[in-house]
Amino acid sequence: MTDGREGRIVATLAPDAPAVAAATGLPRGVDGLGHAFSAEFIAAGNRLGDSTALLRVSRATGQTDTVTRLKALVARQSSAPDKNGYFSFSVPTIGTAEEALPFPDGWVAVVRTDPYRVDRRSPDARWVRGAAVPFPVVRMDEKEKRAYMERLVLPPNERVVSFGTTSVYVAVTDDDGIQRLRRHPWPPRLGTR
Predict the structure, then answer these.
(1) Is 29 exposed, middle or buried (0-12, 13-18, 19+ CB in 10 A)?
(2) Low-confidence residues of the chain, pLDDT below 70?
(3) pTM (two decimals)
(4) Strands (E), 148-188
(5) Strand pairing of 64-71 and 127-128?
(6) In this structure, what DSSP letter does residue 146 have?
(7) How far apart are CA 183 and CA 62, in angstroms?
(8) Given this model, what pLDDT does residue 88 score?
(9) Of 148, 161, 142, 136, whose CA–CA distance to 188 is shortest?
(10) pLDDT tens digits along 100-134
C-alpha cells in the first residue's frame, strides 16, 4: 500500500491478514486512518448486477462497512464455455461507470454519472452532495465511435475515468495493483500522451 505519494510504501500486508481476506473485490485505495477500500460486485440473481458496493475495510480487524453503491461497467459473457468450463467476457468500450477515490484524511470522493457530479463523504460518514455539472449531450454515430477508439488507445493497465474541461483523467494500475490517477491535456496535443 502507498499513501498517495510516489514510491513510498507505508505498509505490507500478509495474505492471511484480516483486511486481505475481507477485501476480495477491486481495490480502490487506502486512507491514512487504517482503512482499505474495495469495490465488490453485487449479484442480481445468478449473474453480476450493474453496480458495485464500495466497502471500507479496517486493515487491523477486517471489519467492513458499506460506503455506497457505484454504477459499474459490467463484463458480459461473449463466448460459450471452453472444455475447462471457462467463458470469455468483454467490457463495453464506450460506457460510463462511477468511481470512488479515498484520500489520506479519510474523506472519499465519488464521481456520480446521473446527474454528473462529485459527492464527498467525511470520515464520520456525513455526505456532501455536489452540484450537478452541466455538459452537452453528443450523439455518437459509427464514424464518431471509430474516431473515439483511435484517439483513446491505452495500455491494458490504464482506463479513462472522467473528462474535465481541458483534461482527461486516466486511472493507471501498476504491477503491484496500486492505482494512480493521471491528468492528460484534452483535446490531446500532437506528440503528448
Answers:
(1) buried
(2) 1-11, 13, 43-49, 74-79, 86-94, 188-193
(3) 0.61
(4) 158-163, 167-173, 179-185
(5) unpaired
(6) H
(7) 33
(8) 63
(9) 148
(10) 999 999 999 999 988 999 999 999 999 999 999 99
